């Protein structure tokens, strides 16, 4: 019987200890993670909001080459003159690395001498310019290495170069001078459109 | 000896009751940040609550309670040295749902106004989602812009 009483006391002590620990833990939670008034418990956490604004795509003329065909003497036969892509106009497209861009260009435009004829007199005429051969790209390489043909409407991914996505385009072409072509300075514009 | 057995049984019952008292929990945690889609300057970027990039918060209580949810929302996203980008949060970009962790079918609310959920049942999971719209103006410099959102819950 004496043994039984001892056990009873021991169990009650254990129960009291357990209950006290539970209360203590709850108080610690209140102090570290919440503030309460009466029974109200208030908790707060934060979240981050983030947005990456990308670099817009741009295109610019690069290098010193042009699509100037120089002086040509007219004759009574059809003449053609070609500027290769490598010796033609170089363009630089820039944007975020990995951006997929679509290249569109005029496959054929007419040059005319209307301004020259207006200023100096003479017969107006036109000369056809065709993008022939087709333009090429050398990715981020500013030198004419491993050129790849770009079809009108073709897409290319801008390649990282020093943290910027780059693409070099090389555009040459061919003009056709008709027999007895009116003389003058012939000017025309070829548009290269980059969309993304 | 029979008396001893009775006492032991009584003790176990009391311990069980004590343990239940000790599991009283109220918690709030963040499950996800808001990550707006990458955009070019001049193009808005929107995150819907159903978007995996929406912010998500988890609230739990194992005692019956009333629950309020309120936000401290930024009005701009910032990047050092760059102009701020306005960001907006409205009723179509915040929602909550009890029990089920799925924003599809959740209830929308205005994050600019305190949400009050009365009579939240014992052992209830509450999920809160927050999206928004960032408005980078034309000419915004390329960079990463950030802000902090604070959510506060009160249970009583």
Topology:
The complex is a heterodimer of chains A (196) and B (156).
Chain A: H1 2-33, E1 35-37, E2 40-54, E3 58-62, E4 79-83, E5 89-95, E6 100-105, E7 108-112, H2 114-120, E8 126-130, E9 136-137, E10 148-149, E11 154-157, E12 159-161, E13 164-171, E14 173-177, E15 192-195
Antiparallel strand pairs in A: 1-2, 3-5, 4-14, 5-13, 6-11, 6-15, 7-8, 8-14, 9-10, 9-13, 12-13
Chain B: H1 2-22, E1 26-32, E2 34-35, E3 39-40, E4 45-47, E5 55-61, E6 65-72, E7 76-77, E8 85-88, E9 94-98, E10 107-108, E11 115-120, E12 124-130, E13 132-134, E14 143-155
Antiparallel strand pairs in B: 1-5, 4-13, 5-12, 6-11, 6-14, 7-8, 8-13, 9-10, 9-12
How would you describe this structure to a colleague?
The complex is a heterodimer of chains A (196) and B (156). With 196 residues, chain A is of the alpha+beta class. Chain A has 2 domains: 4-16 and 56-195, no CATH class; 22-51, no CATH class. Chain A has 2 helices and 15 strands. In chain A, the strands form 4 sheets. In chain A, strands 3, 5, 9, 10, 12 and 13 form a 6-stranded antiparallel β-sheet that branches. A 4-stranded antiparallel β-sheet of chain A has the order 4-14-8-7, with no helix packed on it. In chain A, strands 11-6-15 form a 3-stranded antiparallel β-sheet, with no helix packed on it. The longest helix of chain A is centred in the N-terminal third of the chain and has 32 residues, at 2-33. Chain A is elongated, with a radius of gyration of 39 Å. Residues 1-37 of chain A have low confidence and may be disordered. By secondary structure, chain B is mostly beta strands. Helices cover 13% and strands 46% of the residues of chain B. Chain B has 1 helix and 14 strands. Chain B has one helix spanning 2-22, and strands spanning 26-32, 34-35, 39-40, 45-47, 55-61, 65-72, 76-77, 85-88, 94-98, 107-108, 115-120, 124-130, 132-134, 143-155. In chain B, the strands form 3 sheets. Chain B has a 5-stranded antiparallel β-sheet with strand order 1-5-12-9-10, with no helix packed on it. Chain B has a 4-stranded antiparallel β-sheet with strand order 4-13-8-7, with no helix packed on it. In chain B, a hairpin with a 7-residue loop joins strand 7 and strand 8. The radius of gyration of chain B is 22 Å and the shape is elongated. The A-B interface holds A 4, 7-8, 11-12, 14-15, 18-19, 21-22, 25-26, 34, 38-56, 96 and B 1, 3-4, 7-8, 11, 14-15, 18-19, 21-22, 24, 26-30, 32-36, 38-41, 45, 55, 57, 74, 77, 85, 87, 130, 132, 134, 136, 140-156.
């Amino acid at each position: 019987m004496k043994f039984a009483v001892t056990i009873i006391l021991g169990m009650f002590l254990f129960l009291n200890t357990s209950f006290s620990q539970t209360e203590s833990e709850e108080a610690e939670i209140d102090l570290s993670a919440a503030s309460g008034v009466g029974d109200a418990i208030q908790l707060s956490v934060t979240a981050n909001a983030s947005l990456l604004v990308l670099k817009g795509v741009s295109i610019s003329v690069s290098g010193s080459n042009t699509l100037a065909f120089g002086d040509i003497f007219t004759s009574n036969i059809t003449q053609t003159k070609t500027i290769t892509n490598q010796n033609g106009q170089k363009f630089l497209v820039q944007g975020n690395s990995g951006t997929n861009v679509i290249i569109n260009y005029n496959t054929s435009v007419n040059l005319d001498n209307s301004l020259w004829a207006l200023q100096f007199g003479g017969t107006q005429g036109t000369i056809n310019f065709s993008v022939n051969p087709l333009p090429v790209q050398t990715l981020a390489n500013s030198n004419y290495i491993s050129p790849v043909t770009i079809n009108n409407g073709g897409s290319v991914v801008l390649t990282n170069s020093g943290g910027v996505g780059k693409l070099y385009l090389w555009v040459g072409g061919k003009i056709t001078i008709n027999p007895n072509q009116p003389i003058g300075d012939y000017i025309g514009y070829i548009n290269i459109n980059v969309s993304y | 000896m029979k008396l001893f057995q009775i006492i032991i049984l009584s003790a176990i019952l009391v311990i069980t009751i004590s343990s239940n008292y000790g599991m009283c929990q109220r918690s709030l945690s963040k499950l996800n940040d808001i990550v707006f889609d990458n955009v070019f300057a001049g193009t808005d970027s929107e995150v819907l609550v159903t978007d995996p990039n929406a912010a998500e918060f988890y609230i739990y209580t194992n005692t019956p309670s009333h629950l309020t949810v309120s936000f401290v929302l930024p009005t701009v996203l910032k990047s050092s040295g760059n102009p701020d980008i306005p960001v907006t949060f409205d009723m179509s970009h915040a929602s909550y749902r009890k029990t089920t962790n799925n924003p599809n079918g959740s209830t929308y609310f205005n994050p600019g106004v305190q949400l009050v959920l009365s009579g939240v049942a014992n052992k209830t999971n509450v999920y809160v989602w927050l999206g928004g719209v960032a408005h980078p103006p034309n000419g915004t410099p390329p960079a990463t812009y950030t802000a902090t959102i604070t959510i506060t819950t009160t249970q009583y």
